[in-house]
Each structure stands twice: as C-alpha cells, then as structure tokens.
C-alpha cells in the first residue's frame, strides 16, 4: 500500500499544470459554493450593521406619534417590564447648525444622552483612545470627519446655533467614525449630555425617544406587544427590520447560488475530462498493478485516491479563497461611509462543512465515471492499451437527451406552479446548460459543415482542413463546451446588470419632475402651498402613501399604496395607463376604486371590476379594481387610489412624498439647498431626481460587482481549462500533425490551420454559449419572479457579439503556443516516439 | 537513365549530452529513376535516418542530399513542403492517416495542401482508388479500416500527385504476411506502371525481393549495394 501511495504522489506532481487546473477547479467550486451560501448571513449582517448607525444595539424604539398628547416620553412605563429588558435609554434629540469662520454652514444632529447610556447603546471610541470620565454641562463630543472639516480640536470651544440662539460648548472628545459618528452623507451627529440639550427647550428629565433592548431570554415580539399597551398613544417600532435585511440578502444569495452552480459545472467538466486523460495515462501503471495481482478494487482505490487528494487540496485552497470572496462581497455590500474594519464576515461552521463535502463529492463523482470504465476493462486490453473511449454509436442518444432537456427547459416554466418556480427555474438554468453541453457534438457537426464551406472560400483548403478537424475532436468539443459555459455565466451577469441598471434609469424616466421629497409626518398642505408660492418652484404635488397593505383572502400584499390627486399625479408621473386621464379622474373620485400595476394584477390574479378588500388601519375596506397600468416604481409593485378615500380609510394627514418641478431655468440643486436651509427643522429627505438616480446606480453597481466576482471565476477556469485542453490536444495530435507535415504541410500552413481551428471553435463555442445564454435570459425572469422581482431580460445581441469576439480572441491567444509548437514540430520525433 | 536521388558524403550525428552518436557515416548512393530499392540492415543501423534525410524530414550534419538535382537541405521550408507534396510520397509503419478525415480526404491531402481544387482530381482519385482497390471504402474513416487497408490509403495518398519518388519506412512491418504481400505487389505494380521510383526500408528479404536493388546498411555505412 505504501508503494501505491508513493506512486500516487508521484503521479500528481508529474503534470504540474494539470494538477493546478484540477485543484483550482475544485477550489473555485468550493469557494463559490461556500461564498454563495454564506453571503446571505454576511450581507444581512452588513445591512444590520449599517442600520445600527441610528439605533445602535437597541432593538425597539418608542417615540411620540401624531396621537400623542405630549411631544415627550417618559421611561416610567417601560420600567414596569424592566425584568424583560436589558436597558431602557431615553434620549433627547435636536438639531443645531455650525457656522465656520469662512461662513460655511453645516447642520448637526444633536443627540442628547448620558455617556454611560451611549456606551451601551452605540459605543463611542475616541481618536486619542482616552476614556471620558465625566460628561456634564456644556460639553460636546463631535466626530472625527466633522472635526477635520471644521478644523476643531479637543479642548476647543464650538459655537452652535440651536433653537434660534447661539451657544458655546467645550469639545471634550473627538470620536472615531464608527457607529453614530460614521458619516453617511445624510446626518452628522454630535453628542451632548441629555439635560444640557433638553434645557434649551425648557425641559428637564424628559426624552424624545426611548431606545430599548430586549433581554435575550424574552421574545422581542412579546415585549413589543406589552410596550404597545403601556405606551398606547405612542409609536412602538422594531429598530431594524431584520427580515427586510434578510430578504434582500437571500435574494442576492439566490442569484449567487445559481452562478456558483454554473461555475461548479465548469469545474465538474474540467475534472471529468482531466480524469479521462489521467486514467488513460495510468493504463501502464494500472495494467502492471493488475497483472501483478491487484484487484479491481485496489486499482479503483488507487485512482479514486488521486481524485480524493485533489479534492483535499482543492478544499483547503477553496476555503481560503471562499473567505476572500465573502470578504469582497461584504465590502461591496456596505455603504462607502462604513469603515472596512467595521465589516465582519459571518458564516456558520456548517456552511463550511457543506462546501467541503460538496467539493469532495464533486471531485469523486466527476472522476468516478472514467475510473469505473477503466477498472471494468479486462487486464489484457489495459496492457495492450486497447481501451476504447466514447463510442460513436451513442452520439445520437446524447443528442436526444440534450434536445429533451432543452425542450423541457423551454416548456416547464410557464406551467410550473408558482410556489416551486424559484427552485424549478434555478434548476432549469442548470439543466439548460447541461442540455446545451450534451448538444455540443451535434451542433459542432452541423456548424462544422457550414464552416467547412465558408472557410474553404475564405481561407482555402487549409480552412477546410481546420473546420474538418473539429469533427469528433474531443478536446475541441471540450473547449467549445468550456467556452460556452464561461460565456453564458459572463453574459448572464452582464445582461442582468445591464438590464437592471437600465430599468433603474427607466424608473426615473417615468418621473416628470425634478426633486423628490420624502417626509416623516410633517409635510402637509401648508408646506406644499408655501413651496408652490416660491419663485424657484414651478409645481408641487404631494401623495399619501402606506406600505405593505394586506389584501384580505389573498396571499400577497400591496407593497406600496398611494392616495393621489389623479388630476395632478399624471403630470408628475409618466405611468402607462389603459384609461384616459378623464376616465381615471372620474373612476377614482366617484367611489372606492383602485388602480393596480400589471405586476399586482398578476400577483393578485384579478380582473377589471373585481372587488378586493384591503386592510387599512385595522379596518377592512373594499375597493373595485378600476384598471391597470405599467410602472417601474417599486419593482412595479404599486397601486393607486384617490387621496379622498385614502385619507378617510387610513386617517393619514401628511404627505409621504412630494414631487417638485422647478421653475424654468432654475437649477434643481439650488432649490434643494434652499428648501434644506429654510426648513432645517423639518425631518425630510430631499434630493434631485438626478442625484437619487446616481445613488441608486452606485448601489446597483456594487451588487453587480459582486456578481462579477463569480463571472471572473468562470472566466479564469474557462481560460485555464482551454489552455490545458489545447496542450493535451497538441500532445495527442502531434503525430497526425507530423504526418500532415510529411506529406507537405508547410510551417505557415500548420500554424494557420491551428489558428483557424481556434477561430472555428471560438465561433461554435460562441454560438453554443449564445444559445445557452438565450435560454438563461428566458429562465431568469421566472427565477426573479420567485424572489419578487419583475422584469424582462431582453437578449442583448450586442453583448453576445462582443462575447463571441472575446471568445475567439481567447481561443486564438491560447492557441498561439500550440500553433508555434506545431509549426516547429520535429516530424521524426513526433512519429517515432510514444 | 537519370539520377533522381543522390547523396554525397552524407553524415548524421546526434548529440546525446556530451557524446556524439554517429548514425550515418559518409553515405554515398545514387538512385535512378524507376528503381525499386530496398534498404536493409540490423535495427539501429540508420536505415530510417537515411530515408528521412532523403525526404528532407531531417537535416544532415554534413554532406548533401539531392533530389532531382535540388539540394534538399538548402531548401526553404516552403519549397521543401512543395517538394514533399509533389515529388515525394511518404509511407510510414504507423499512424499514417488523419483520423477525422475520410479515405478520400486523406488521399487528397497533398492536393489540398497544394491549394488544388478537389473537383479537378476526381478522375485521378478514382484511378488511384482503383489501383489500391478501395473504391468501395472512399467515405470511410481510418478507424473503420483494417491495418492493410489503412496502409493502402497511405500509399494512395503518396501517389495522388503523381510523384517521382515513394519513400516507405517498413510499410508492411505492422501487417500479417498475406496483407504484406498484397501491399508489396501493389508497390511493385505502381513501380512498373507509373515508373515511380520506390525506396523502402524493410527487415524481410521476401519483401526486398520485390525490388531490383538491395542496399545493406550496417553501423551507418553502406555495407553492400547489389542489383538483382
Ligand atoms: N533523436 C535521436 N537522438 C539520438 N539518437 C538517435 C535519434 N534518432 C535516432 N537515433 C539513433 O540513431 C540510430 C539509428 O536510428 P534509426 O531509426 O535510423 O535506426 P533503424 O535502422 O531505422 O532501426 P530500426 O530497424 O529499429 O527501425 C539509432 O542507434 C538511434 O539510437
Ligand atoms: Mg527504422
């Protein structure tokens, strides 16, 4: 056995490039599967971290709402259930503005809080690493970034304009940009002792907001319930909806998973084809082993042991690589303002275990078929090197299986029940790839015939020979398959990202206004008319909105419901309605009528004039479906009712969103600055549509950069695999090339033949890849539907053409060395040896 | 009679590390048009090397090989290739055919490489298939043929361009004696009817009997050179 082991290790180190290729393929499979599974928890974690800027470690917040009698809140009631809570922290929040010597104004969010409380809620770390022992009176802590901008230092004084008066505070600490002090481009915080701040408003010992953390032993929802009772006139909210974060993360992770499986397919393919070659090379050894009495089982173990060793090395590198990929994903999913150190990679040990086991299974399984074949071969044939691979007779079986698979891929999604659609379409994407790979010999044969004709015209007889050489050529088929799968992965990623970015842009093309305002509870009619009186502003429209509206007896929710003034709304949004403006106006105002987006029409499966019951403010209200429209807002999950009924049914009195058209010749940014300045105390978010669009684009770019990591792997494996195939193929073909040279093929002809072969397999690979990605673009919308994204992904011919071009270039570049080697081939040596 | 192949003081030395292996030493032979020469000798004596040097597959260390008066070693790659397409047909012991081309395409290989149109060679192809007796196998691929049939295809390929010379390295070394006989008869017939000069390397004196001249090589030197 010792001898066998030594032999094994010698075998592995004999062919370094191939060993590298197999281990890299296994490692990539391991890494991507690991990263795809773990990405869900990592991204969730990142999102939560990000949201923690505002709420720290608290999981519940309580604050005065519109029903409250007082703008303040006491901790007394919460103390009644203190045993269930880790802490209740009351804070006073306000705003101030800082004006530098040069006249630059900056708005500061003032957070009034005791220092010990702050350390529990959202710990502050000072840049000088000193502790703060006493935080009292006219003292303030500011963030590092702000301090640098304003050129302020510890121990200095800062003058702030608060509530109309100027006040002086001593800077007692400068905080690291973490937690509260991480700048996100929206809010810049400064912390003061609570009473110092509340006294400015003539209050002492009151809070504006309670931050609460549930004790781990109690359920959060039960605590929320009791708090809702205790503070019945206040708003009780979960700080961050963990579910929301998880939903977003699992959506991404599902897409990653499909990508990872595709790359795994490439790995399996490479390991499988490599093992065919390996087993062939091991004939002599296996033959000898068998002839000296080794059983079939021993020889099988001998070869399986080899694949197991590759798997072990693959998983070791794969885990490291996977961690790296995960780290990249985490970095890309965080907002730019978060410091890289604040990001941690989160995964369960079981995830790692799953990835490792999967990788080993992948390695063993993909080597098992060739190994089984070898161990079944009689000793005599092995010794005489007579084993026959790939029986041509079975070619048509392969083709038929391929056709059946592709047909299934096309036919199943439309008839698949919705609850299985996600899984089914995910699997079908993989099946479409498998099916297309099975069809490669057939497609090659057909396209080869066409290329023969074409090439003989274009390049003469050498072109004809090159095209001929594709027929039944195993390594060319392998190259075509690898190229096709690699191309598909890359094309899917680019088409998907191209399309989503385009849709994001499209969404804003629905906007017929310049500025978008989102408000808390303070945007009312007054505000709206004040704005519209401004010289800078052309027109203003406010809508009432509520999210996640339950539809009684349906399993789906309306993600966003808006109460609109139909007359005006159509001037601000360019939705595509079936009805005319007059019809909409009339329908909405007469009775309770709802207009649904086509996406909702599908989801709720309703027809025009059906009646649906909505749960609004705990009361059920029936609306008649008045018509449908197409929009990109909120992924198309949007419904409209008239503002009259909306206000009646929800009791809402303030606008959720306002849209502003600026006057002719006025710049949007100016108007934004003006409103920000004049309505400083209002809690609103205001940006120009252009800026929002840019922000959105950036966040999508990050998501697609994550996907690009996966396509990068596909590309790397593809290219390395192709180079390896070409080398193997060169070794196998050198005799035949020598024969061709002996009957008069010149060096130039040899080189051009090899390069033309590269071009033709690039073309065929491109065609196959095109077919596979067309199937994927057909399947992806179904897949996306299951994760609640609705979009068509049009097949992009321009991208496909570029991909084919790149494929040909890759093939050509990878063929340069074999072409040179072939043309310089020493005929005698090639014919004499081996 | 005109001389088609001529070697002058032909030497071939292989360097194996620091040792020089002298494979051919001062070989001088002249072969006339239409001759059927058999080169014989013990294994390792340099027979194949001599044949390859004549065909320009390898370069001599010193001395000259002239085919039709042209110095083979001095030809450029292109002209050398052209010489192999038009003037010389090669037949090896193994691996003679391209597996993914059928019989016709294999035979037409030199024509294809010469840029010729396949259509123009229809008649010639039929004629040659007739000579080698493979009319009914023209669309088969090499793996569907027996060893003897494969060798006949190789010979047919050697003939397609009507070359003056056929160089064959143990053409029947891998075949049973009956098939070997058939191949030798075929070569003989070609030699007679087309006037093709044939130089073969062989280990069997029976096959040497088909020719008119036998050259014995030993340790890289011509030992005997006899006409029958
Ligand atoms: N590339 C090479 N490097 C070193 N020595 C070589 C090389 N090729 C051939 N030789 C040597 O040249 C000598 C002649 O080889 P050659 O192939 O011509 O013999 P042969 O007469 O054809 O023998 P056989 O009947 O076995 O085919 C041999 O001793 C061989 O070892
Ligand atoms: Mg020899």
Q: Write out the distinct hetero groups bound to the structure.
A: adenosine-5'-triphosphate, magnesium ion
Largest sheet of chain A: 6 strands, mixed, barrel
Low-pLDDT runs of 5+ residues of chain B are: none
Tell me the number of strands of chain B.
10
H/E topology pattern of chain B = EEEHEEHEHHHEHEHEE
Average pLDDT across residues of chain B? 88
What is the end-to-end distance of chain A?
29 Å
SS content category of chain B: alpha/beta
Unreliably modeled segments of chain A: none
Give the integer mean of the pLDDT values of chain A: 84
Q: Round the Cα radius of gyration of chain B to an integer and report it.
A: 17 Å
Strand content of chain B: 25-35%
**Gross CATH architecture of chain B:** 3-Layer(aba) Sandwich
Strand order of the largest sheet of chain B: 6-7-8-3-9-10
What does this structure look like?
The complex is a heterodimer of chains A (834) and B (228). Chain A folds into four domains: 1-52 and 250-391, no CATH class; 57-238, no CATH class; 398-509 and 699-834, no CATH class; 521-682, no CATH class. Chain A is built from 26 helices and 19 strands. In chain A, β2 (85-99) and β3 (105-112) form a beta hairpin. Chain A is elongated. Chain A starts with a helix and ends with a helix. Chain B is of the alpha/beta class and 228 residues long. Chain B has a single domain (3-227), classed as P-loop containing nucleotide triphosphate hydrolases (Rossmann fold). Chain B has seven helices and ten strands. Chain B has helices spanning 47-55, 77-86, 103-113, 122-132, 147-159, 177-193, 205-208, and strands spanning 3-16, 19-32, 36-40, 62-67, 70-71, 88-91, 165-169, 197-201, 213-218, 221-227. In chain B, a hairpin with a 2-residue loop joins β9 and β10. In chain B, α3 packs parallel to α5 (147-159). The mean pLDDT of chain B is 88. The A-B interface holds A 460-462, 464-465, 468-469, 471-473, 735-736, 739-749, 826-828, 831-832 and B 48, 52, 55, 57-58, 77-78, 80-86, 89-90, 92, 94-101, 105, 109-110, 112-116, 157-158. Bound molecules: adenosine-5'-triphosphate and magnesium ion. Adenosine-5'-triphosphate is lined by residues 14, 16, 21, 23, 41, 43-49 of chain B.
């Amino acid at each position: 056995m010792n001898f066998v082991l030594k032999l094994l290790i010698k075998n592995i180190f004999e062919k370094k490039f191939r060993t590298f290729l197999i281990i890299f393929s296994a490692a990539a499979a391991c890494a991507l599967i690991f990263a795809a599974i773990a990405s869900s928890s990592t991204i969730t974690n990142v999102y939560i971290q990000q949201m923690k800027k505002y709420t720290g470690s608290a999981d519940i917040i309580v604050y005065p709402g519109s029903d409250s009698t007082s703008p303040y809140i006491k901790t007394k009631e919460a103390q009644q259930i203190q045993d269930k809570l880790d802490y209740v922290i009351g804070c006073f929040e306000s705003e101030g503005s800082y004006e530098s010597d040069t006249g630059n104004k900056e708005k500061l969010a003032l957070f009034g809080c005791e220092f010990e409380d702050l350390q529990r809620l959202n710990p502050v770390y000072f840049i000088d690493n000193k502790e703060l022992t006493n935080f009292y009176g006219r003292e303030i802590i500011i963030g590092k970034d702000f301090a640098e901008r304003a050129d302020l230092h510890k121990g200095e004084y800062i003058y702030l304009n608060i509530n109309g008066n100027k006040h002086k505070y001593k800077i007692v600490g400068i905080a690291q940009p973490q937690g509260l002090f991480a700048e996100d481009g929206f809010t810049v915080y400064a912390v003061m002792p609570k009473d110092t701040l509340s006294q400015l408003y003539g209050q002492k010992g009151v809070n504006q907001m309670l931050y609460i953390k549930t004790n781990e032993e109690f359920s959060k929802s039960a605590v929320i319930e009791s708090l809702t009772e205790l503070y019945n006139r206040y708003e009780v909210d979960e700080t961050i909806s963990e579910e929301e974060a998880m939903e977003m993360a699992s959506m991404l992770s599902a897409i990653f998973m499909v990508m990872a499986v595709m790359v795994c397919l490439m790995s399996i393919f490479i390991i499988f084809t490599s093992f065919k070659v390996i087993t062939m090379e091991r004939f002599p050894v296996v033959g000898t082993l068998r002839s000296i009495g080794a059983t079939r089982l021993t020889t099988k173990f001998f070869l399986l042991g080899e694949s197991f060793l590759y798997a072990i090395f693959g998983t070791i590198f794969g885990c490291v690589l996977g961690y790296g990929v995960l780290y990249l994903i985490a970095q890309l999913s965080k907002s730019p303002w978060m410091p890289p150190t604040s990001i941690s990679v989160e995964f369960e040990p079981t995830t790692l275990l799953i990835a490792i086991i999967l990788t080993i299974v992948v390695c063993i399984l993909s080597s098992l078929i060739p190994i089984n074949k070898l161990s079944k071969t009689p000793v005599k044939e092995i010794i005489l090197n007579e084993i026959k691979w790939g029986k041509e007779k079975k070619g048509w079986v392969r083709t038929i299986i391929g056709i059946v698979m592709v047909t299934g891929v096309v036919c199943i999604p439309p008839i698949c029940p919705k609850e299985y659609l996600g899984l089914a379409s995910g699997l079908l994407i993989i099946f479409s790839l498998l099916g297309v790979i099975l069809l490669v010999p057939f497609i090659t044969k057909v396209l080869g015939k066409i290329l023969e004709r074409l090439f003989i015209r274009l390049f003469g007889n050498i072109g004809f020979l090159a095209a001929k050489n594709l027929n039944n050529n195993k390594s060319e088929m392998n190259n075509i398959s690898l190229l096709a799968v690699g191309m598909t992965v890359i094309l899917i990623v680019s088409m998907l990202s191209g399309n989503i970015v385009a849709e994001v842009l499209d969404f804003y093309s629905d906007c017929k206004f310049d500025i978008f305002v989102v408000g808390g509870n303070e945007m009312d009619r007054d505000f709206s008319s004040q704005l519209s009186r401004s010289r800078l502003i052309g027109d203003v429209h406010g809508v009432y909105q509520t999210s996640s509206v339950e539809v009684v007896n349906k399993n789906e929710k309306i993600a966003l419901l808006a109460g609109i003034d139909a007359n005006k709304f159509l001037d601000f949004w360019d939705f595509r309605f079936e009805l005319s403006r007059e019809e909409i106006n009339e329908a909405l105002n007469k009775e309770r009528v709802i207009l649904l987006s086509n996406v909702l029409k599908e989801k709720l499966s309703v027809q025009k004039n059906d009646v649906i019951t909505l749960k609004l403010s705990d009361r059920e209200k029936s609306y008649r479906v008045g018509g449908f429209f197409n929009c990109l807002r909120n992924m198309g999950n949007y419904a409209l009712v008239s503002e009259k009924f909306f206000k009646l049914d929800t009791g809402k009195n303030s606008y959720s969103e306002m849209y502003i058209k600026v006057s002719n010749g006025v710049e949007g940014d100016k108007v934004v600055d003006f409103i920000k300045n004049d309505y400083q105390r209002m809690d609103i978010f205001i940006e120009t549509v252009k800026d929002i669009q840019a922000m959105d684009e950036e966040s999508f770019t990050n998501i697609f950069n994550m996907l690009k990591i996966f396509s990068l792997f596909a590309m790397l494996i593809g290219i390395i695999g192709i180079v390896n195939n070409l080398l193997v193929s060169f070794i196998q073909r050198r005799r035949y090339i020598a024969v061709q040279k002996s009957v008069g093929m010149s060096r130039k002809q040899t080189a051009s033949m090899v390069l033309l072969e590269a071009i033709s397999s690039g073309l065929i690979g491109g065609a196959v890849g095109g077919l596979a990605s067309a199937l994927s673009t057909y399947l992806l919308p179904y897949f996306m539907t299951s994760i609640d994204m609705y979009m068509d992904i049009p097949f992009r011919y321009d991208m496909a053409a570029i991909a084919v071009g790149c494929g040909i270039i890759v093939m050509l570049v990878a063929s340069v060395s074999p072409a040179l080697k072939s043309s310089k081939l020493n005929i005698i040596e090639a014919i004499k040896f081996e | 009679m005109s001389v088609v192949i001529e070697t002058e003081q032909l030497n071939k030395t292989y360097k194996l590390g620091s040792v020089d292996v002298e494979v051919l030493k001062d070989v001088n032979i002249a072969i006339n048009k239409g001759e059927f020469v058999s080169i014989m000798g013990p294994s390792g004596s340099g027979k194949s090397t001599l044949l390859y040097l004549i065909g320009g597959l390898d370069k001599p260390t010193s001395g000259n090989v002239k085919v039709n008066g042209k110095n083979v070693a001095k030809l450029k790659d292109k002209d050398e290739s052209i010489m192999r397409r038009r003037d010389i047909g090669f037949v090896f012991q193994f691996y003679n055919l391209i597996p993914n081309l059928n019989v016709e395409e294999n035979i037409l290989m030199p024509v294809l490489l010469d840029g010729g149109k396949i259509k123009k060679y229809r008649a010639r192809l039929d004629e040659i298939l007739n000579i080698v007796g493979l009319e009914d196998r023209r669309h088969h691929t090499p793996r569907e043929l027996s060893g003897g049939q494969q060798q006949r295809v190789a010979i047919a390929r050697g003939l397609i361009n009507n070359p003056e010379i056929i160089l064959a390295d143990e053409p029947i070394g891998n075949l049973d004696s009956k098939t070997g006989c058939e191949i030798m008869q075929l070569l003989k017939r070609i030699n007679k009817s087309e006037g093709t000069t044939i130089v073969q390397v062989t280990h069997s004196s029976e096959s040497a009997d088909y020719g008119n001249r036998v050259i014995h090589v030993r340790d890289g030197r011509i030992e005997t050179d006899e006409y029958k």
